[in-house]
Design goal:
alpha/beta, Rossmann fold, N-(1-d-carboxylethyl)-l-norvaline Dehydrogenase, domain 2, 3-stranded mixed sheet, 13 helices, 9 strands, NAD
C-alpha cells in the first residue's frame, strides 16, 4: 500500500526557496507556496504547486513547513507574525523546518517558540547555492532531535546529496556561519592578492592559472579566482548576504569572548564592496572594490 506524500509548505521563494519548491514538485510532493512578491509564486504554480496568501495559510494546509529567507528579521516575520505567521496557522505536530542561514541565538529562540505551539522544529541550513540546488546536490546541516530529522530527511533529500545531524538547535546555525566565513575570508584574501598582482604588472589570468595548480589553493578559491579575473559577478552568494553572515559570526564570537580578526577584516572588505554598489553581486565582486 502506497503511503501518500505529505503536503509541504515552502515559504520564501528567493534563489534557494524557489529551487527547493521546484524539486519537491518534481519529486511528487503536494506543495503549497507563499512569498511576498507574486512572480515566483506564479512560476511554481505553473510547475504544479498551489498558492497561499500568507505563511499562516500555507502552514494551515501542510504537514511540513520549510522556510528559506535571508536573515533573522525575515525569519521572525514569517514565523511569528500574529496574523500571518506560520505559528498562527500551523497545526500541532507540524514538522517545522527552518533552512535559512541565521544566528544561533535566533534559531534557539525560534525553536522554543515552535515547541510552545506544539510544532516539531528542525534547523537545516544549506551548504551550496543555485547550481547545487538545481542539481539536488546541497548539503543540509541539521540541528534538533534525531527523530524529527528522521521524519524530515526525505523532504530534505529532494534537494540534497547529504544531510548531516550536527547536534541540538543552534549547532547547525553555528557551523553554517563557520563554513560561510571560511569561504568569505578566502575570497577576500584572493581579491587583495590579485589586485596586488595587477599593480605589480603580473597578468591576472596567468596568476590565477598558476595558483589553481598549487596544492595550497582550495578548489573553491581556484573557482573564485577565475570568476574574479573574468569579472563575471552574477550572484550565487551575494555580497549583502556575506556581510550578514560575517556580522552574525562576529557577534557570536563576541558572545563567546573569542577573537575573530580575520573575519572582521573580511567583513570590512565586503562592506566596502557593498558601499561601492556591489551588494547584489556575487561575493567575488569584492575584487572590484580593490581594482
Amino acid at each position: 500500500m502506497n503511503v501518500p506524500l505529505p503536503t509541504v509548505a515552502v515559504i520564501g521563494l528567493g534563489a534557494m526557496g524557489a529551487r527547493l519548491a521546484a524539486n519537491l514538485c518534481a519529486g511528487g510532493y503536494p506543495v503549497v507556496v507563499a512569498n511576498r512578491s507574486p512572480e515566483p509564486v506564479r512560476d511554481l504554480v505553473a510547475a504544479g504547486a498551489s498558492a497561499a496568501g500568507s505563511p499562516a495559510e500555507a502552514a494551515s494546509r501542510a504537514e511540513v513547513v520549510l522556510v528559506a529567507v535571508s536573515d533573522d528579521e525575515a525569519s521572525a516575520a514569517v514565523w511569528l507574525d500574529r496574523d500571518t505567521g506560520v505559528l498562527a496557522g500551523a497545526h500541532r505536530g507540524t514538522l517545522a523546518v527552518e533552512a535559512s542561514t541565521l544566528s544561533p541565538r535566533w534559531v534557539r529562540n525560534l525553536a522554543a517558540a515552535a515547541a510552545l505551539d506544539g510544532l516539531r522544529f528542525l534547523e537545516a541550513p544549506m551548504i551550496g547555492s543555485r547550481p547545487q540546488a538545481e542539481a539536488r546536490a546541497l548539503v543540509h546541516l541539521a540541528g534538533g532531535r534525531p527523530e524529527v530529522l528522521a521524519d524530515a530527511r526525505a523532504v530534505l533529500e529532494c534537494s540534497a546529496a547529504r544531510v548531516h545531524h550536527v547536534g541540538d538547535h543552534g549547532t547547525a546555525a553555528t557551523l553554517k556561519l563557520i563554513v560561510n566565513a571560511s569561504l568569505a575570508t578566502q575570497v577576500a584574501v584572493l581579491a587583495e592578492l590579485l589586485a596586488l598582482a595587477r599593480r605589480a604588472g603580473l597578468d591576472p589570468a596567468e596568476s590565477v592559472r598558476f595558483l589553481a595548480d598549487l596544492p595550497v589553493t582550495s578548489p573553491a578559491a581556484a573557482r573564485a579566482a577565475g570568476v574574479m579575473t573574468a569579472e563575471d559577478f552574477a550572484p550565487n552568494f551575494p555580497v549583502r548576504l556575506v556581510d550578514k553572515d560575517l556580522r552574525y559570526l562576529t557577534a557570536l564570537a563576541e558572545d563567546l569572548a573569542t577573537e575573530t580578526p580575520m573575519a572582521r577584516a573580511a567583513l570590512a572588505g565586503y562592506q566596502r564592496a557593498g558601499a561601492a554598489g556591489h551588494g547584489d553581486a556575487d561575493l567575488t565582486a569584492i575584487a572590484a572594490a580593490y581594482w
